[in-house]
């Protein structure tokens, strides 16, 4: 039996092409992959990393640690928070190392030092998207390698369709043997383009990195802050001040600044730098070479040597038409010119000139860092999808053809009166009862269901606002209800969503939980001690007098009672609450501690085993969490449409399919074709949500009762 | 301990929806804040600590010059004194009586009695609406404490020692006053959505030194002001959320002109969402906003519609930008040239950060009060006081204090000192640890010449170095300088022409909005978010002047 298993694993990892094998492999690997994934907590931000040796060596991204020798904390999967120091950083590849300063052994994963991966391979990414969230293990995401990388430096990146986002930076990309093959580094707007530093690029400089050496310069403004003396855009300021010295003699503005120094904002510094030392790599914008009056399209000045100057335009000329279109306002002229390209200008005094714009360095944007999460670098707006198409995905889909047939009569599109599909629906009873996403069909006029070429009018029977599910009814025959799987899918389990032709594939990324409102999903902060006893103390007294004991907590399990006064913790007397809290927070979950309490006249010894602090109920709003959620949403929305309503569901399955909002309402099924949930939202780049079957059961009962009452 | 009657009664609070905040409520609050703004300059002081870049507000608690101040960490663990910055720019060293880092407070004392200062009353009657005096993290010369009006998250139980403010805008150790200016307690570390504050009676119990200092609580010296709006008993219900703040925000929102002359401007293609508010200045689509927050590609959102925006021109003096969209018939702002009284309630329409167009969050409104008119080129208190620096960056190593770097353009740079030198003596004072350095520099003036003895290899060398004024570096963007306050300040926070400094708590992306009073008059344009409760707004006159400049000539196309 043992041999058989190993054989399976081996075969599986090399030829994991069939859905079943893939499902089994990822599910089996997932816990170990998550266990070795850590959050890297810095002052003002967090990234991810992966432990690669039992003594706590962590590989992460250079843009997470940014400099060698920096003190930080590492949050382990088991909730322990340990001090760490960054070793080498390589800004040329974005690879970096850090070391946990605590005795191991730690859970770790092996890494490759040769290019053992190729285009088309499956890969798994983990990390802490949006920063470590209280009570959430690192989500597991599955994808294919779409580019294995050939050159050196940043362009060498492994590109995958495993969706990562801010906060995942530094987290691992694994192959199906569970070896680290890459480090999450940057993304393009498209969901399908996720870039990872190839491990061989890191191992090539291994000794130097172990030696805390630093390569290259950070590619974006420093966004982590060592301490309060740090200044934003310090690196830009440094370059600026250097350039200022150099150009003080030949530039009047520089001379003036040297004579009377003042604090310039990054735009001004950048504009002057662009003038003195233009960066050939910088983004370019078209420029025809004149300024205008804001109220009318009259030329105010013409830049010497510019296309406008060469063509003979002069200040005072009024532009009356562009490319034959009459122009009366500066704004319309400006909008036309913004697009660039050759334009034919006609002026009021009879000049007709054709101008081809020159390319000048564009104005840049200096975004505010979002506190709490290290931003994922966005490299380009590149369309990576063409590469994905080259992947031998056909074979994989082919093996699912039979399964797809099963849903032809169970999953149907709903259309508005223009005949445009707006959402999907899942058949739950052959009399024509279906479930769909309520908020998508609200206020839609002429809602119809298309089945076997015919359109049927839809009647909304009842709506559940919490789960955003609607029970609808159509007078159609031949609909076939789906089969249900009440058992909750495991993390790493392969899940499918039937589309009109084939399936979307993905995995369950994390255990089911509430999908809270914007700003209600709290990040783990260092202030929160992870070890947990489960008692609260009376605020009236500085003495550690127990006021409440939480049910099921370690304190409850050993029989601590309200009114007990804690006298000793681990043999030393407890002076006040703070010293006790300090003591507990220095312990790890799972450690047994000794407490002596005074109960009445007796002194009793208890030995509770400290537990992991349970997730705080998603009941409180946090402004920085709200900022984070906003940033993640907007970054996600660049790759495709998100659902309008995508938060605030009582309980959800989390998966990583690039679900279109049009496919919400469609079932999420396992490889047997049984429904594990109903897709309810495309929530974020790395997150789709489905209402679990167990919850569907109660909701449907409620909906049917509501519908019956009417 | 003096006999303090624990009568923490929360007069009245109500559950969401039950209470409607009215003009009468608002007037009662404003009457108090206007009065409070007159008292605060005598009862509060701007406090700093040598070597730290930030300033905080402390309250005067005794006739003979005791102050209760936020605890400020000393950079090297010991000895750096607390400093009191006087409005005239002078700096007074304070004696530390006792520090309670875990309660985030320190009891300090002036060497000599200062007749310009007078003590606050103390009180234990916690009402639903309170005031927190605040200042800029880098206070400017002559800056008075601003007032931020706070509401309690829920009524504290009768025998409580802690009450909770429903915001997270204040650093730990901030004094909390009632609306008559009586001291109620000090804030602790902000939590996820509220800030607990320790009642003054609890503090007195814990700090024996306080007991003899604080004046007795007696009926006679209680003020007869309308403290807070009276809220009827029928409205008292169990409180779970924050209905006071919400109902007040709703009320204030209703005082804005409608439709609001505001748009939301998105930086297209920016890596993090970054939107900013714009103020419409002409019906045909001309908008003013904060220039330094804009990238090259703009999308403007107004009335549920998106317009491509063009950046026509920027003005360096005011950091304003002229943005245009192709639209007509837009509501535009009308300015009122009126400098309000300190303590006047002000409001800014806020669009909680909109991430993408399909996530239009409800517009709301934040309120604060006017603090003072900050004149152009007002120096920071630290820069004008006698804090000295060697112009060196030092590092503590086992064998002593070593020079890590030397700042250019300082006497030290010219002197021949070199990074790596180990400082052994300043004049006759032996230097073994960095605190020795701090201690030495605390007692010197800018320009003093000192003899520095260093060890370079095995050789001892002497250098003459004159002391310079330290460079005040603004705190980094996005940093939680006051211990866990998630607040994103603007990239550009100065210099500006004369500006209105107020306490409306806005973030970087809320700039560009008009600053309204409760009559819906636009008194200014919010131009910089400096810290959680410190915002700067341009005066209408400067906005108009800038608009003239911006209209004259666009940037090159």
Quick description:
Chain A has about 700 residues and is α+β, with helices and mostly antiparallel strands.
Topology:
The complex is a heterodimer of chains A (710) and B (557).
Chain A: H1 2-15, H2 19-35, E1 37-42, E2 45-51, E3 57-61, H3 62-65, E4 71-75, E5 81-90, E6 95-100, E7 122-125, E8 141-147, E9 158-160, E10 172-174, E11 180-187, E12 194-198, H4 199-203, H5 206-210, E13 214-215, H6 234-247, H7 252-259, H8 266-276, E14 284-287, E15 290-292, E16 299-302, H9 307-310, E17 319-322, E18 325-326, H10 330-338, E19 343-347, E20 352-355, E21 358-361, E22 377-378, H11 385-389, H12 393-398, H13 401-405, E23 411-415, E24 421-429, E25 433-437, H14 438-441, E26 448-451, E27 454-457, E28 459-464, E29 469-473, E30 494-498, E31 503-515, E32 531-532, E33 535-537, E34 546-549, H15 554-558, E35 565-569, E36 572-573, H16 577-586, E37 595-599, E38 602-606, E39 611-612, H17 623-637, E40 649-655, E41 667-669, E42 675-684, E43 687-692, H18 693-709
Helix pairs in contact in A: 6-8
Chain B: H1 23-43, E1 44-49, E2 56-60, E3 66-70, E4 82-85, E5 91-100, E6 105-110, E7 129-134, E8 146-151, E9 162-165, E10 175-178, E11 183-187, E12 195-199, H2 200-206, H3 208-213, H4 243-255, E13 262-267, E14 275-282, E15 286-290, E16 298-302, E17 305-315, E18 320-324, E19 345-351, E20 363-374, H5 381-384, E21 392-397, E22 400-406, H6 411-415, E23 422-426, E24 429-430, H7 434-442, E25 449-456, E26 459-466, E27 499-502, E28 514-517, E29 522-531, E30 534-538, H8 540-552
Antiparallel strand pairs in B: 1-2, 1-4, 2-3, 3-6, 4-5, 5-6, 7-8, 7-10, 9-12, 10-11, 11-12, 13-14, 13-16, 14-15, 15-18, 16-17, 17-18, 19-20, 19-28, 20-27, 21-22, 22-23, 23-24, 23-25, 25-26, 27-30, 28-29, 29-30
């Amino acid at each position: 039996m043992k041999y058989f298993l190993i054989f399976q694993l081996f075969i599986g990892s090399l030829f994991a092409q069939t859905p079943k094998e893939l499902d089994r492999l990822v599910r089996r690997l997932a816990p170990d992959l998550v266990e070795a994934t850590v959050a890297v907590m810095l002052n003002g931000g967090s990234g991810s990393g992966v432990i690669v040796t039992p003594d706590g060596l962590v590989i992460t991204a250079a843009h997470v640690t940014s400099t060698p020798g920096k003190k930080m904390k590492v949050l382990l999967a088991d909730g322990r928070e340990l001090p760490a120091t960054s070793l080498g950083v390589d800004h040329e590849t974005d690879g970096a190392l850090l070391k946990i300063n605590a005795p191991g052994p730690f859970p770790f994963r092996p890494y490759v030092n040769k290019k053992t991966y190729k285009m088309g391979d499956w890969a798994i990414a983990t990390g802490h998207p949006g920063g470590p969230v209280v009570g959430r293990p690192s989500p597991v995401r599955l994808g294919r390698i779409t580019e294995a990388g050939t050159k050196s430096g940043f362009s060498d990146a492994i590109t995958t369709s495993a969706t990562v986002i801010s906060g995942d930076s530094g987290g691992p990309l694994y192959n199906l043997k569970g070896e680290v093959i890459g480090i999450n580094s940057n993304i393009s707007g498209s969901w399908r383009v996720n870039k990872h530093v190839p491990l061989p690029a890191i191992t090539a400089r291994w000794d130097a990195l172990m030696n805390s050496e630093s390569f290259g310069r950070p590619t974006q403004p420093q966004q982590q802050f060592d301490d309060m003396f740090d200044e934003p855009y310090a690196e830009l300021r440094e370059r600026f001040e250097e350039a200022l010295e150099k150009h003080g003699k030949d530039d009047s503005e520089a001379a003036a600044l040297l004579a009377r120094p003042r604090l310039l904002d990054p735009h001004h510094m950048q504009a002057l730098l662009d003038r003195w030392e233009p960066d050939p790599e910088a983004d370019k914008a078209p420029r025809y070479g004149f300024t205008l009056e804001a109220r009318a399209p009259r030329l105010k000045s013409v830049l010497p040597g510019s296309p406008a100057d060469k063509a003979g335009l002069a200040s005072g000329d009024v532009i009356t038409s562009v490319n034959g279109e009459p122009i009366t306002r500066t704004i319309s002229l400006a909008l036309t010119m913004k697009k660039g390209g050759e334009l034919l200008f006609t002026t009021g005094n009879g000049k007709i000139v054709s101008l081809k714009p020159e390319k000048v360095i564009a104005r840049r944007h200096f975004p505010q860092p979002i506190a709490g999460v290290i931003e994922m670098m966005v490299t380009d707006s590149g369309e990576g999808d063409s590469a994905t198409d080259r992947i031998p995905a056909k074979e994989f889909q082919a093996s699912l053809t039979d399964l797809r047939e099963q849903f032809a009569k169970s999953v149907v599109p709903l259309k508005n009166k223009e005949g445009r599909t707006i959402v999907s629906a899942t058949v739950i009873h052959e009399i024509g009862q279906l479930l769909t996403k309520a908020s998508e069909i609200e206020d839609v006029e002429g809602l119809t269901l298309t089945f076997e070429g015919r359109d049927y009018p839809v009647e909304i029977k009842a709506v559940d606002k919490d789960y955003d599910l609607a029970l609808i009814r159509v007078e159609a025959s031949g609909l076939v209800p789906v089969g249900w799987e009440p058992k909750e899918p495991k993390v790493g389990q392969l899940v499918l969503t039937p589309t009109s032709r084939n399936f979307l594939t993905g995995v369950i990324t994390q255990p089911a939980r509430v999908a809270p409102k914007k700003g209600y999903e709290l990040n783990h902060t260092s202030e929160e001690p992870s070890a947990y006893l489960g008692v609260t103390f009376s605020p009236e007294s500085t003495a550690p007098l127990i006021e409440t004991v939480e049910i099921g907590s370690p304190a409850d399990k050993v029989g601590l009672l309200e009114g007990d006064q804690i006298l000793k913790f681990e043999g030393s007397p407890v002076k006040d609450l703070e010293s006790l809290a300090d003591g507990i927070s220095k312990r790890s979950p799972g450690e047994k501690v000794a407490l002596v309490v005074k109960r009445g006249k007796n002194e009793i010894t208890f030995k509770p085993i400290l537990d992991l602090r349970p997730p705080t109920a998603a009941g409180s709003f946090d402004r920085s969490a709200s900022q984070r959620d906003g940033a993640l949403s907007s970054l996600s929305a660049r790759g495709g449409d998100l659902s309008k309503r995508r938060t605030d569901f009582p309980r959800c399955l989390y998966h990583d399919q690039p679900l279109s909002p049009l496919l919400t309402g469609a079932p999420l099924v396992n490889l047997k074709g049984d429904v594990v949930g109903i897709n309810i939202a495309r929530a974020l780049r790395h997150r789709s949500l489905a209402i679990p079957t167990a919850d569907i059961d109660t909701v449907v009962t409620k909906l049917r009762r509501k519908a019956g009452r009417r | 301990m003096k006999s303090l009657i624990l009568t923490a009664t929360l007069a009245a609070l109500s559950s969401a929806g039950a209470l409607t905040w009215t003009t009468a409520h608002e007037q009662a609050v404003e009457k108090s804040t206007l009065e409070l703004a007159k008292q605060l300059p005598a009862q509060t002081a701007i406090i700093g600590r040598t070597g730290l870049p930030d300033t905080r507000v402390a309250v005067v608690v005794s006739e003979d010059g005791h102050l209760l101040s936020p605890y400020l960490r000393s950079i090297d663990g010991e000895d750096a004194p607390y400093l009191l910055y006087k409005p005239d720019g002078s700096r007074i060293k304070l004696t530390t009586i006792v520090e309670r880092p875990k309660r985030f407070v320190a009891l300090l004392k002036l060497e000599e009695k200062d007749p310009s200062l007078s003590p606050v009353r103390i009180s234990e009657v916690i009402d639903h609406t309170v005031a927190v005096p605040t200042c800029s993290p880098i206070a400017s010369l002559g800056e008075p404490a601003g007032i931020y009006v706070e509401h309690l998250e829920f009524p504290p139980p009768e025998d409580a020692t802690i009450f909770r403010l429903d915001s997270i805008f204040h650093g730990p150790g901030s004094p909390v006053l009632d609306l008559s200016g009586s001291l109620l307690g000090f804030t602790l570390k902000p939590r996820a959505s509220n800030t607990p504050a320790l009642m003054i009676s609890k503090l007195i119990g814990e700090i024996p030194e306080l007991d003899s200092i604080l004046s007795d609580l007696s009926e006679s010296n209680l003020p007869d002001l309308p403290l807070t709006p009276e809220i009827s008993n029928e409205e008292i219900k169990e409180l779970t959320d924050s209905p006071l703040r919400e109902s007040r925000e709703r009320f204030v929102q209703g005082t804005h002109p409608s439709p609001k002359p505001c748009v939301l401007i998105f930086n297209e293609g920016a890596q993090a969402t970054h939107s900013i508010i714009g103020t419409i200045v002409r019906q045909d689509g001309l908008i003013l906003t904060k220039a330094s927050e804009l990238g090259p590609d703009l999308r403007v959102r107004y009335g549920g519609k998106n317009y491509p925006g063009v950046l026509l021109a920027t003005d360096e003096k005011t950091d304003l930008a002229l943005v245009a969209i192709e639209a007509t018939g837009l509501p535009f702002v009308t300015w009122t040239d009126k400098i309000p009284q300190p303590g006047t309630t002000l409001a800014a329409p806020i669009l909680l950060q909109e991430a993408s167009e399909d996530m239009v969050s409800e517009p709301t409104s934040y309120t604060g009060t006017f603090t003072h008119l900050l004149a152009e080129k007002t120096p920071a208190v630290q820069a004008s006081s006698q804090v000295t620096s060697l112009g060196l960056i030092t590092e503590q190593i086992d064998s002593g204090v070593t020079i890590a770097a030397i700042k250019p353009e300082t006497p030290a740079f010219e002197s021949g000192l070199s990074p790596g030198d180990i400082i052994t003596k300043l004049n006759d004072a032996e230097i073994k640890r960095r605190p020795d350095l701090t201690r030495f520099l605390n007692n010197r003036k800018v320009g003093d010449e000192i003899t520095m003895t260093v060890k370079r290899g095995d050789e001892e060398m002497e250098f003459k170095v004159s002391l310079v004024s330290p460079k005040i570096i603004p705190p980094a963007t996005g940093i939680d300088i006051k211990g866990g306050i998630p607040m994103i300040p603007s990239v550009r926070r100065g210099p500006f022409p004369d500006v209105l400094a107020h306490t409306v708590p806005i973030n970087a992306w809320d700039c560009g909005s008009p600053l309204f009073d409760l009559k819906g008059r636009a008194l200014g344009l919010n131009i910089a978010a400096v810290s959680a409760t410190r915002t700067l707004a341009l005066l209408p006159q400067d906005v108009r002047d800038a608009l003239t400049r911006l209209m004259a000539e666009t940037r090159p196309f």
